[in-house]
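Subject: for your reference before the review

Hello V.,

The reviewers asked for a structural picture of the protein, and I figured it would be easier to keep everything in one thread rather than splitting it across files. Below is the amino acid sequence we used in the manuscript, unchanged from the supplementary table.
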Amino acid sequence: MLAQICWKRFVIAEVSCPTRYFREASSINFRRSVLYGFGCLWTAVRFRLARWNVMSCRLFKEEFKQNAGHNKSMPQKSGRQEGGA
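And here is what came back from the structure prediction:
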């Protein structure tokens, strides 16, 4: 999700939240955490390659819509206006 936000060049601000870390709070084991980390790295690589136009990735296409029609009020980047000829 963050990679897509960066792809669209939105500004990201930090929202602080008080957090306490302790051994019993973690519910992910080592194997799952390593897989998650590699997934994050793979997303970062795909982001960079797509930004350099080396690779096409469905995750970073301008027309990407997870829920078709969900954001109809969002402005279009193409400059086309709806309903025009």
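For the response letter, the relevant points are probably these. The first helix runs from residue 2 to 7. The radius of gyration is 18 Å.

Happy to draft the paragraph if you're swamped.

O.
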